[in-house]
Amino acid sequence: MTSLNVAICQAAPIPLDFTGGIEKATRLAREAIDNGAQMVAFGETFLGGYPLWLDEAPGAALWDHPGTKALHAIMLDQAIVSGDERLLPLQELCDETGACISIGAHERVRQSLYNNQLMFRPGEAPSDHRKLVPTHGEQLNGGGSMIVAPDARVVAQAGEGEEILHAELDLSEIGGGLASLDTDGHYSRPDVFQLNVDTRAKDGVNWEMDQ
């Protein structure tokens, strides 16, 4: 493969409505795929939205704030979970078309919330990438989505409203771009340093019993 047709769906999430958000995402992704996209991307926490307004709400960070507690309870109740059947329309769209879809969501693991970026792939279970440290302002950015080449050249940029941004990526540019930044090789020095990531599911508490 020497090129890849990609699309960014710049669209507003449906706040606190994960089911409605999945329906909207499926519709937009199908539109992008029908127009040639082989990979479709949505923003962080597209499913559920990010409650950035809390930054402006007086007292929201105070202990026992009733509004914050109520909102957190709603997000826990709405958030996706492992094997969530509400996500099936996105998986089925990938299986049907052969395209990949990346989308952000709030995920519930036991009683905690994580920002997760799911990658739906044809014929495979979605891979997930939980953010180690969630950020704030970048989650409800109102526009300006862009597709950037390895040399930092802007290939395509969206305006401020809802739109689907398309671009044809020349994959042969990757080799040249590695001369400037190679995070998987030269700059990471795998011959000297090693990063081990354990992707196995884990419990929060492990009980060890005396024999």
Q: Could you outline the blueprint of secondary structure elements for this entry?
A:
Blueprint lengths: L2 E8 L7 H17 L4 E3 L24 H13 L9 H10 L2 E10 L2 E10 L2 E7 L15 E3 L5 E4 L5 E8 L2 H5 L34
Describe this structure in words.
The chain has helices spanning 18-34, 66-78, 88-97, 173-177, and strands spanning 3-10, 39-41, 100-109, 112-121, 124-130, 146-148, 154-157, 163-170. The longest helix is centred in the N-terminal third of the chain and has 17 residues, at 18-34. The chain has a single domain, classed as Carbon-nitrogen hydrolase (Nitrilase/N-carbamoyl-D-aminoacid amidohydrolase). The mean pLDDT is 89. A 6-stranded mixed beta sheet has the order 5-4-3-2-1-8. Strands 6-7 form a two-stranded antiparallel sheet. By secondary structure, it is of the alpha/beta class. It is globular and about 55 Å long.
